[in-house]
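Sanity check. The docking grid for zinc ion depends on where the pocket ends up, so I'm generating a full predicted complex first rather than guessing from homology. Inputs follow.
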Amino acid sequence: MNYRQIIIFDTTLRDGEQAPGCSMNSVEKLDVARRLEKLGVDVIEAGFPASSQGDLESVKAIAGIIKESAVAALCRSLKNDIDAAKEALAGAAAPRVHIFLATSPVHMEYKLKMTQDEVLEQAVWAVAYAKQFCSDVEFSAEDAFRSDPGFVCRIFSETIKAGALTVNFPDTVGYAMPGEFGERIRYVKEHTEGVERAKLSVHCHNDLGLAVANSLAAIQNGADQVECTINGIGERAGNASLEEIVMSLRVRRDRFGVDTRINTSQIYSMSRLVSQVTGVKVQPNKAIVGENAFAHEAGIHQHGIMANSETYEIMTPESVGISKNQMVLGKHSGRHAFEDRLNLLGFTVDRELLEKIFAEFKTLADKKKTVNDRDIEALMLGAAPSVPETWTLDHWAVNTGSALGASGTIRLLHKDGRREKIVALGDGPIDSIFKAINQIIGREPELELYEIGAITGGSSAQGETMVKIAWDDRRYNGRGVSTDIIESSIKAYLAAINAMEWEAAAGTASPKHE
Ligand code: KIV
Ligand code: ZN
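Predicted complex below; grid placement will be based on this.
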């Protein structure tokens, strides 16, 4: 059967990354982009090049490596922004310039201070300007849902005439209800002159928890493209979640009669990667990718599932890349079994990295009887530092107790070969050791988040620490894993420090747009 194909436009690296607490460094963005390509998304929105030199460089780097997906760059309807997108996309196999301008009364009057006619003229000019160097141009009418529908149709027909191949209808503030959103999309489809020459897209925010429902209603009413993010990350309550849209379309193909190019078996590992690099945890009951999405606790459910999984499961965990019948790995497991498991989890590694992680796996297996997928994932994500390390941990010790304060000793190795050792006092072991690190590096970044949890159960479980630090208006994430929670904290803090040092050395530390 030939199903209508829905275009999946992923904006995890732009709208997602723009959200507070979701920042990624350029190496992490490259990693995410490669995995989005493997997932099969049609368009990767890689960033907003005019917002900072760092964003421009990372869009450029992504454009240079992605071959199977189009790479989009966001711009306001301004010459400078479009020129920055042109520079960033120069090496892309399939570049897309994504231009936006607000069309709602409140945005036009208070933000833009422009009339409808001025907005129309600016949008048409911007599309025509971009079209001179990029054939694939998308125009978004920001806050379209709260705009006059007639005006949106007019601006869409004029931008299509100017060369836009996609026109996007965002519910920027997540205000729409599914029924009316679907009706509005139908209206736009029926009243936009020339719409048959372009793709109609939607971009829904989740302020009332309806972003996915609204996107699905739009598809039922003729939308060709949906804009979404992994795990639904994004501004405020987030964007529509890619995994929920894709699996709704797949599981209820009987109702939607459409398909996507997404390789759904990559969904779970993609979700884990985004959660790891942003440090934003996925809620346990999140549809499709939450820890409990396929867990059956109640006895009556377990009984049903054992008799026939369809009693309580509308899709299999395997269909989204969660392998249920996991063979537990232990200290006797060989390289092959280990590599197979890595591949199953979505990681491909070269020989050198395999040797390194395999050695770490053996050390871990000596400490823990069994090593499960979460442990392996943690090893893998910790094994290859996301940026070159300025400082590596050489040695640490802490002394603490209820009657005394804590003292922390740390010895770090700098990339130029020198070793530095400091002892510092603090309010508890972590405070003392972080203070010692600050004294060595000669800076005191603000610790915005410190979170520690066990990856698996049991007292020999690995501890996973997430740290976010702020320095000079920029935020850096770090993650550390160890069976010792103080060591995992040190690793996380150093990872964030190294991201900060690396960005300072690369000279890309310019403030991001708000
Ligand atoms: O939410 C929004 O309106 C946007 C546009 C820039 C597409 O993110
Ligand atoms: Zn948005």
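Relevant for the grid: The CA atoms of residues 283 and 437 lie 32 Å apart.
Also worth noting: The chain has four domains: 4-278, 296-322, 326-383, 391-506.
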